[in-house]
Design goal:
Number of helices: 12
Strand order of the largest sheet: 1-2-3-4-5-6-7-8
Structural class: alpha/beta
Distance between the termini: 49 Å
Number of strands: 8
Bound molecules: coenzyme A, zinc ion
Strand content: 5-15%
């Protein structure tokens, strides 16, 4: 097992993108800066996608302009095409993440083009990013199964990862868009990539749609994977995938890792405060559990609870 892992916060992108009511730009900035204060090393703060497709993230550049860049947190953004790369470079992101899906149907639904067309566009994205000196990573959605097509062959994931490597990308993320990953699939996919594309570090991005997100993290840890993506309060979901729900929750993940003696550099109390704040902003209860229960050694006063008498 790794002794230290990188936890990437994706809530401001994966989470906010499905919120119907526009979250004011200043509110987004305040929440993300709270995550910075908690010591989160990398934050996917928004996407440079079509504002018609995802109106919530129309303010990506304005959000970045308000973020605290004094503490060394890296700010990454999702980009689907060259136009997105130009906008991201102009805004001054630290890292670009291109994305496509391993399955044709989801790629079509999500970015209105074939997988091959997405990959062709990434060549131009790389040119833009290289000119601006911005590192690029590639994210593969539906990497563990597709809500429209079902099983996604591991070879398809491997073929895309090789193309990422050949294009000069720095890492590959496996996205479990609708929570179809299981521990054996995690082991199979990580081993396949390590065998065929050993140059690319792997990031795992699980959704907790079927309740086994952290179990999948355990499978990843046992395989030695060192990068995990999660959303504070358990926000998240893709608007262009049927039945998508929240990511694994960042505080719950950090809590588990710390209890296992694995370092993240994140302050759990401050992270929980940010999670409670986003609950307040959205005005509804969110799935995160540790922000509600507190750490395991949180003690309650005995007189808070009635004594059971017969
Ligand atoms: N940022 C802003 N605007 C963009 C854009 C980008 N990255 N890419 C395209 N556009 C604009 C074009 O300028 C054009 O605008 P116009 O009609 O005013 O001239 C319009 O969008 C259509 O462009 P086109 O290239 O034909 O795109 P499309 O309609 O085929 O849509 C995507 C393709 C990729 C832009 C769109 O599907 C998208 O943004 N998807 C993202 C979905 C997402 O974020 N999912 C969740 C993450 S997993
Ligand atoms: Zn996701």
């Amino acid at each position: 097992m790794p002794r230290k892992v990188t936890v990437t916060e994706v809530g401001p992108r994966d989470g906010f993108q499905i919120e119907r009511d526009f979250i004011p730009t200043d509110t987004k900035i305040g929440l993300i800066n709270q995550l910075v204060d908690a010591g989160v090393p990398i934050i996917e703060f928004s996407s440079f996608v079509s504002p018609r497709a995802v109106p919530q993230l129309v303010d990506a550049a304005e959000v970045l302009a308000g973020l605290d860049r004094s503490k060394g947190t890296k700010f990454a953004a999702l980009v689907p095409n060259p136009k997105g790369a130009e906008r991201a470079a102009a805004a001054g992101v630290d890292e670009i993440r291109v994305f496509l899906s391993a399955s044709e149907t989801h790629n079509q639904k999500n970015v209105n083009r074939s997988v091959e067309e997405s990959l062709a566009g990434f060549e131009e994205v790389m040119r833009v990013a290289n000119d601006a000196g911005i590192p690029v990573e590639g994210a593969i959605a539906t990497a563990f199964g597709c809500p429209f097509e079902g099983e996604v062959p591991v070879e398809q994931v491997g073929v895309i990862a090789r193309r990422f490597r050949d294009l000069g990308m720095r890492g590959v993320g496996l996205g479990d868009t609708t929570g179809m990953a299981t521990p054996p699939l995690v082991v199979e996919r990580c081993r396949h990539l390590r065998e065929h594309v050993p140059e690319l570090p792997i990031a795992l991005h699980f959704h907790n749609t079927r309740g086994i997100g952290l179990v999948n993290v355990m499978a990843g840890l046992a395989e030695g994977i060192e990068i995990y993506e999660a959303s504070f309060a358990g926000l998240g979901g893709c608007p262009f995938a049927a039945g998508a729900t929240g990511n694994i929750c960042t505080e719950d993940l950090v809590y588990m890792l710390h209890e296992m003696g694995i370092e993240t550099g994140i302050d759990l109390d401050q992270l929980c405060a940010a999670a409670r704040h986003v609950e307040e902003v959205l005005g509804r209860s969110l799935p995160g559990q540790v922000m509600k229960a507190g750490p395991r050694l949180r003690r309650h006063r005995a007189d808070e609870v009635e004594t059971a008498t017969g």
